[in-house]
Amino acid sequence: MNFIHFDVDKCSLCHVCIEKCPFDALHMGEKGIEVGEACRMCGICVKACPEGAIRFEQKAGQADKSQWSGILVFAEQEQGEIHPVTLELIGEARRLGGPKGYEVNVALIGGEGTAERAEMLKRYGVDKIYAYEHEALGSFKADSYTKVMADCITRMQPSVVLVGATALGRSLAPRLATRFHTGLTADCTKLEMRENTDLVQIRPAFGGNVMAQILSTESRPQFATVRHKVMDAPERSAVATGEVVFCEVAEEMVSSAIKVRSVHAAERSCGIEEEDVLVVAGRGVKDEKGMELVKALADVLGGQVCCTRALVEEGYGDPTRQIGLSGRTVKPKLIVTCGVSGSIQFASGMKNSECIVAIDADPEALIFNIAHYCINDDLYEVIPPLVERLKQKKEVCSHAFSLS
Amino acid sequence: MKIIVCIKQVPDSSDVAIDPESGTLIRMGQNAKTNPYDLYAIETALRIRDEVGGTVTALTMGPPQAEEMMRDAYMMGVDETVVMSDRKFAGSDVLATSYTLSQGIKMLEGADLIICGKQTTDGDTAQIGPAIAEHLDIPHVAWVKSLEEVNDRFIAVVHQMSGHVQVSEMPYPCLITVDKDIFVPRLPSYKTKLSTREKEVRFLSFADLPDKNLSRFGIIGSPTQVDKMFPPEAAEGQVHIEGNSVEKANRLVALLSEAKIL
Ligand SMILES: Cc1cc2nc3c(=O)[nH]c(=O)nc-3n(C[C@H](O)[C@H](O)[C@H](O)COP(=O)(O)OP(=O)(O)OC[C@H]3O[C@@H](n4cnc5c(N)ncnc54)[C@H](O)[C@@H]3O)c2cc1C
Ligand SMILES: Nc1ncnc2c1ncn2[C@@H]1O[C@H](COP(=O)(O)O)[C@@H](O)[C@H]1O
């Protein structure tokens, strides 16, 4: 491994690193310590050296690009389920690697049940699924997950490593990229691979006002994180083509300074400002039945109900959920307005939302000036089939991962 | 207990645009302020210090103007401030920035607890914290939303994962990155302003650092390069959905799925 760097002047030839290496990868050579193919980047030698003569390092221009090929996708598991961003990353990896005939492999790390879940990934056009199962890997610990992923990366020597830009992925990826002394680009929205295997990574900068194109031309592997719902997931195929490789989890990999005390489902207590999805009730909602429709739509979308001032005045809305000049300012990913005229005072509190869907009976309603998707109709007629359709879609998605 | 908070000075507005002629960045706001997410990190550090005892040092890598930001940090109540400033640090990406900060931390003889903000408003990567922890070979937990228990031996924190929250405990030395809303940051006080007026801001340059290997700093030590910048594609036009109510509902779901909004 050309990542382990020895400082010849500091080395006292004490052999401690050679003895401590769990993979038997270090040997005394002509010019001091040499690192063999068995190295798994576990870092024991770095810690064990009494002289501080060993460190991880990759010098610019040192990477021999031809030694690094294929794409490795980190498959995140959350409480016994594979996170859906994983499939999207696999789809993207196949698209990127196709022209080069690159292998697309997946690293699946976790506690009990991991090996079984590895089977599910076989039908998405991947080559190998490296499965690391150990009870101590049931919950995320950044230090031990880094060691396991380092093991997988040294086995495969991928040119590119893709990680979901989730809370877990964004905690793991920077640690891992640092261990390999290489580049990591966060939150990529577009990826392209050049003929020379350099990954062209595009991400928003300055709050989305500018797009930046980023390259790591001198180092390998190239790390990128990508958010959920940015790339396309592949279709599940009828035949299982992937091969599951069960990898041994060494005790050293699971040793961690972090102790997980508990894990529990997150309570949804966030205010409407932090919410990703909002459904707004306006004066077009005339009764309890209308409120129920709006609530059902919010539930199936996984969001919260808010209202205009008019509805607060009518007694249907809670003032802490009022949007607008005299209410809250929101910027969710999706906002659906139902029976809202879109007055200036209301719009000023939500016009920067990423996607605005407006349902209103009046074709002249001001809301249609700022909406991205306009539905000119009676909300009492449109919401019921909309809720129905969304429920159907949800069921299809939850079947995507089923075993058979 | 010794606590180091990493903070950064950022432009006070992200209002920038690309000059279509030259392809260069035009910045609207010229003023700088403390990265808003770092105020939560400072507040967390001060509260832990006030409970457990010890000192809080604010550390930054940036141009000499960062001294202004450090005056504000003094006004909030930190004990010591350090600015790492050198032309040789210019052009640093995540790897080089985190390495430089880890060198600064070594210069300060380490810390029990290092606290970072969740992300910056200009770099916006949320990567510096975990990368510092890796350079220093200490454990870390990111996205901390509240503290469960802190004493002089360990810290237990509640942190957000995709669909659940986890409570993790670590011994010192360790690093956390804190989410906004962990605590409400205090306002700088006039009283502390007066009492800290004489306090010095310490400067460190490349020559002061233990590692003198230039290839690890600044643009040379940065594996990633910004190849170019360009304006985002204009948002696509408005869609009017037609048909009967059921058709409209189905069409909307199809369009939102296609646009990956659902
Ligand atoms: C100083 C000041 C501050 C204000 N601040 C706020 C504020 O913070 N927030 C706020 O919301 N307002 C605020 N207002 C009030 C604001 O001007 C509007 O009066 C209010 O936003 C209107 O709410 P609305 O859209 O629900 O009702 P309306 O304007 O009455 O609109 C109702 C809409 O529902 C449609 N509709 C009716 N029936 C149906 C149906 N069956 N199906 C579909 N559509 C239907 C109608 O076509 C119409 O477009 C403020 C006003 C002032 C003067
Ligand atoms: N130049 C810097 N100096 C000090 N701290 C920094 C610097 N850059 C980033 N940080 C810290 O790392 C966090 C994440 O930054 P970023 O990875 O740029 O989003 C910030 O909230 C700061 O706590």
From TrEMBL, chain A:
Domain 4Fe-4S ferredoxin-type: 2-31, 37-59
Cofactor note: Binds 1 FAD per dimer.
InterPro entries: 4Fe4S_Fe-S-bd, 4Fe4S_Fe_S_CS, DHS-like_NAD/FAD-binding_dom, ETF_a/b_N, ETF_a/FixB, ETF_alpha_N, ETF_asu_C, Rossmann-like_a/b/a_fold
Family in the record: Belongs to the ETF alpha-subunit/FixB family.
Xref: PANTHER family: ELECTRON TRANSFER FLAVOPROTEIN ALPHA, ELECTRON TRANSFER FLAVOPROTEIN SUBUNIT ALPHA, MITOCHONDRIAL
GO biological process: fatty acid beta-oxidation using acyl-CoA dehydrogenase
Signal sequence bounds: none
Chain positions recorded as FAD binding sites: 283, 308-309, 322-326
Record has Transport as a keyword: no
Cofactor(s) demanded: FAD
Flavoprotein is among the record's keywords: yes
GO molecular function: electron transfer activity; flavin adenine dinucleotide binding; iron-sulfur cluster binding; metal ion binding
Protein name: Electron transfer flavoprotein subunit alpha
Keywords, ordered alphabetically: FAD, Flavoprotein, Iron, Iron-sulfur, Metal-binding
Pfam family for this entry, one: ETF
SUPFAM superfamilies in alphabetical order: 4Fe-4S ferredoxins, Adenine nucleotide alpha hydrolases-like, DHS-like NAD/FAD-binding domain
Domain of life, per lineage: Bacteria
UniProtKB/TrEMBL annotation, chain B:
Gene Ontology MF terms: electron transfer activity
Any one Pfam family match given in the protein's UniProt record, by short name: ETF
Annotated ranges, domain Electron transfer flavoprotein alpha/beta-subunit N-terminal: 22-213
PANTHER family assigned: ELECTRON TRANSFER FLAVOPROTEIN BETA-SUBUNIT, PROTEIN FIXA
Name of the protein described by the UniProt record: Electron transfer flavoprotein small subunit
Source organism: Anaerotalea alkaliphila
